[in-house]
From TrEMBL:
Belongs to the NDK family. It comes from Candidatus Blackburnbacteria bacterium RIFCSPHIGHO2_01_FULL_43_15b. Keywords: Kinase, Transferase. InterPro entries: NDK-like_dom, NDK-like_dom_sf, Nucleoside_diP_kinase. This is nucleoside-diphosphate kinase. Its EC number is 2.7.4.6. Its cofactor is Mg(2+). PROSITE patterns: NDPK_LIKE. GO terms for molecular function: nucleoside diphosphate kinase activity. The keyword Kinase applies.
């Protein structure tokens, strides 16, 4: 049995998508073993999104590509075209976004659940996410739109990427007594 962490982000909660998202995983057959609504603080978020230089560069570079494809000068609009600086700016937008409303956090259980949930959530940028995935079905946000709004990409959910990350995230968000064992 494997457990994974999933959070409906503030955009998903505000749009009333919690039930829709949850029901997809229930219908799949995954077992909900923990669930709660939390308004997260910066401290938890900094631990959850403890990103390194490589992430800043990756995210900044990806954002610049979208920016240039749209014939815009990032220097003019964002004050920089340095991918790492931009990545750090995006990281702060992400923390601000995650603090902008409550989040519904849950732990789902089932064999191979990390990979299964990731597949159903879809790629980070909804504009790239195929139909049938949560991020592809319910939004079309992109790094260009988000950069225009000086905000993180709104993509409805977070899920763990690999089992070791799932273990860390479950331990960060849930206490032992908040997780349940029962027969389906
Ligand atoms: P994922 O959430 O798919 O695991 P990451 O961990 O790389 O993706 O990024 C964390 C979150 O940061 C994303 O879900 C998204 O909300 C936001 N984000 C990532 N890249 C960008 C970007 N280029 N511009 C704005 N926000 C971004």
């Amino acid at each position: 049995m494997e457990r994974t962490f999933l959070a409906v982000k503030p955009d998903g909660v505000k749009r009333g998508m919690v039930g829709e998202i949850l029901s997809r995983f229930e219908k799949l057959g995954l077992k909900i073993v923990g669930m709660k609504m939390v308004w997260v603080d910066e401290d938890l978020l900094r631990k959850h999104y403890d990103k390194d230089e490589a992430w800043f560069e990756k995210v900044g570079t990806r954002s610049l590509e979208f920016w240039k494809e749209n014939g815009k000068d990032p220097n003019e609009d964002l004050g920089t075209d340095d991918p790492i600086k931009l990545g750090k700016m995006i990281h702060q937008w992400l923390l601000d976004f995650m603090k902008s409303g409550p989040v519904v956090a849950m732990v789902l259980e089932g064999p191979g659940s990390v990979e299964i949930v990731k597949k159903h959530v879809g790629p980070t940028y909804p504009i790239d996410a195929p139909p049938g995935t949560i991020r592809g079905d319910y939004t079309y946000d992109s790094p260009t739109l988000s950069a225009f709004g000086r905000r993180a990409v709104y993509n409805l959910v977070h899920c763990s990427g690999v089992p070791i990350e799932a273990e860390f995230e479950i331990g960060l968000w849930f206490k032992e007594h908040e997780l349940f064992e029962y027969q389906k």
